[in-house]
Amino acid sequence: IKELAYLDHALYSGVAEDYDSSGHVIGRYRFHDGLLVDLEEFLPNGTPILQLHFEQGKQHGEQRRYNGNGKLEQMNTYNMGVLHGPFFHAWYGDFDQCLVKGYAVFNEHHYFQGFEPCRD
């Protein structure tokens, strides 16, 4: 993310929130010197659905996505915008589920045995 946030013509440091029409927090964004540091999105009931962290405008550290029930569906680890570290993906269907786990090294996926990509 390369855009900078300003408030009163100065680079913004602080927290900004988005609310739905009923006043529930559905987004929270933390900035430092105009750069986005953390992004969180929520369902109206407060259940988290997305958690992202940034360093110098690039994804960094664990990035998490949850389903509507608050169950972790996806986790990726980034190092300054490059997929590097543990990852986890889960798909939950009506009759089956698929779990993919591994470790990425500079955008290259290495799957743990028994947790390779699922077949259709």
Explain this structure.
- By secondary structure, the protein is mainly beta.
- It has a single domain, classed as Histone H3 K4-specific methyltransferase SET7/9 N-terminal domain (Single Sheet), CATH 2.20.110.
- The chain is built from no helices and 13 strands.
- The protein is flat.
The fold-level CATH name is Histone H3 K4-specific methyltransferase SET7/9 N-terminal domain
| Main beta sheet | 11 strands, antiparallel
Number of strands: 13
SS element count, helices: 0
Order of helices and strands: EEEEEEEEEEEEE
How large, in whole angstroms, is the Cα Rg? 17 Å
Write down the overall geometry.
Answer: flat
In CATH's first tier, which class applies? Mainly Beta
How much is the average pLDDT? 92
Helicity level: under 10%
Counting helices, strands and paired strands, the structural category is mainly beta
Uncertain runs are: none
Q: How much of the polypeptide forms β-strand, as a percent range? A: over 45%
Could you say how many structural domains there are in total? 1
Distance between the termini: 34 Å
Instruction: State the CATH architecture.
Output: Single Sheet
Provide the descriptors you would attach to this structure in a database record:
single chain; 120 residues; mainly beta; Histone H3 K4-specific methyltransferase SET7/9 N-terminal domain; eleven-stranded antiparallel sheet; two-stranded antiparallel sheet; 13 strands; 0% helix; flat
